[in-house]
């Protein structure tokens, strides 16, 4: 067994280490970070901050993801969605993954300190520790509210992008954080319903496992209503204009429709479809913020 494990680990390639960083998740995070940067200024974003600032944030996010792979390797091996991950399959050793995570974190912090400012670097470090240590190491196994509490770490990228440009925290980026914070529960709980049996098998106290699907669907519907209301606040505080308002209403109404369909149980595979739509929702909402920002500048 030890020989077989060693052979598998010797076959680890660059794709395995890339997978440790959860690149699709990091790309979505960097989109929100980039939007935060552009919303923070009426002038252009310096290319050094645009490139190296986002690279630093991405490296730290990838480091947190790699730690998540290490901590969850036994759970990942039990779940169909994650059983092919590098650590679950033994292609990458835990020590190698942690070393990789440390190097990524150090590189990310160095880039942020060199090309942005100290506040951005420390906020990014706090986000990294919040996800890798507090959420992955404790909350995920401790409470069915793990996603709600731990979602704050994942909601930080637009704040990081804003602070990288402005050097200070203000109400506008905190509102962007609030949007992602409200988006996280319906996003993950929809997936948790779809993967309920796997989470139960892995003994992870996700809300559908501990409180049942109906209870979870009610809370998805309620949080989606909260999200729709929160998403309108950028217009209310004159941070954005009518274009964003129209997009936020349309995108939010569609999300609410999916939440209602999921609650009623009238369509097959509604949970995974709601989950997939939630990803498009966040991407398009932040793109609408960006487009509206530059439209206002040109008026």
Automatic annotation (TrEMBL):
Single GO MF descriptor: protoheme IX farnesyltransferase activity
Annotated EC: 2.5.1.141
UniProt keyword Ligase, yes or no: no
Regions crossing the membrane: 25-43, 49-71, 92-115, 121-139, 146-165, 171-192, 220-237, 243-263, 275-296
Keyword Transmembrane attached: yes
Alphabetic keyword roster: Cell membrane, Heme biosynthesis, Membrane, Transferase, Transmembrane, Transmembrane helix
Main location: membrane
InterPro entries: Protohaem_IX_farnesylTrfase, UbiA_prenyltransferase, UbiA_prenylTrfase_CS, UbiA_sf
Membrane association type: Multi-pass membrane protein
Catalytic activity: heme b + (2E,6E)-farnesyl diphosphate + H2O = Fe(II)-heme o + diphosphate
Pathway stated in the Swiss-Prot or TrEMBL entry: Porphyrin-containing compound metabolism; heme O biosynthesis; heme O from protoheme: step 1/1
Leading EC class: transferase
Localization terms from the record: Cell membrane
Family to which the UniProt record says this protein belongs: Belongs to the UbiA prenyltransferase family. Protoheme IX farnesyltransferase subfamily.
Other information: Carbon 2 of the heme B porphyrin ring is defined according to the Fischer nomenclature.
Function summary: Converts heme B (protoheme IX) to heme O by substitution of the vinyl group on carbon 2 of heme B porphyrin ring with a hydroxyethyl farnesyl side group.
Protein name: Protoheme IX farnesyltransferase
Organism phylogeny: Bacteria, Pseudomonadati, Pseudomonadota, Gammaproteobacteria, Pseudomonadales
Protein's gene: cyoE
């Amino acid at each position: 067994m030890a020989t077989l494990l060693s052979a598998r680990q010797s076959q680890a390639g660059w794709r395995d280490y890339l997978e440790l960083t959860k690149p699709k998740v990091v790309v979505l995070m960097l989109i929100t970070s980039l939007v935060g940067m552009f919303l923070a200024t009426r002038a252009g974003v310096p290319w050094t901050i645009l490139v190296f600032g986002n690279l630093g944030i991405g490296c730290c996010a990838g480091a947190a993801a790699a730690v998540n792979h290490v901590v969850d390797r036994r759970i990942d091996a039990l779940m169909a969605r994650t059983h092919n991950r590098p650590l679950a399959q033994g292609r990458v050793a835990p020590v190698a993954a942690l070393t990789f995570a440390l190097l990524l974190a150090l590189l990310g912090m160095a880039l942020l300190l060199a090309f942005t400012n100290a506040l951005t670097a420390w906020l990014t470090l706090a986000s990294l520790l919040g996800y890798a240590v507090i959420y992955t190491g404790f909350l995920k196994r401790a409470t069915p509210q793990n996603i709600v509490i731990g979602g704050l770490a994942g909601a930080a990228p637009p704040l990081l992008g804003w602070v990288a440009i402005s050097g200070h925290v203000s109400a506008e980026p905190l509102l962007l954080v609030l949007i992602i914070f409200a988006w996280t529960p319906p996003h993950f709980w929809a997936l948790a319903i779809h993967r309920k049996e796997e989470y139960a098998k892995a003994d992870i106290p996700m809300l559908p496992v501990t409180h049942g699907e109906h209870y979870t669907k009610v809370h998805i519907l309620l949080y989606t209503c909260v999200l729709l209301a929160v998403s309108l606040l950028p217009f209310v505080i004159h941070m954005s204009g009518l274009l964003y308002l129209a997009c936020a209403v349309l995108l939010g109404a569609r999300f609410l429709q999916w939440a209602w369909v999921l609650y009623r149980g009238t369509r097959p595979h509604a949970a995974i479809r709601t989950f997939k739509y939630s990803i498009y929702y966040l991407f398009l909402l932040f793109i609408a913020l960006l487009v509206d920002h530059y439209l206002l500048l040109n008026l």
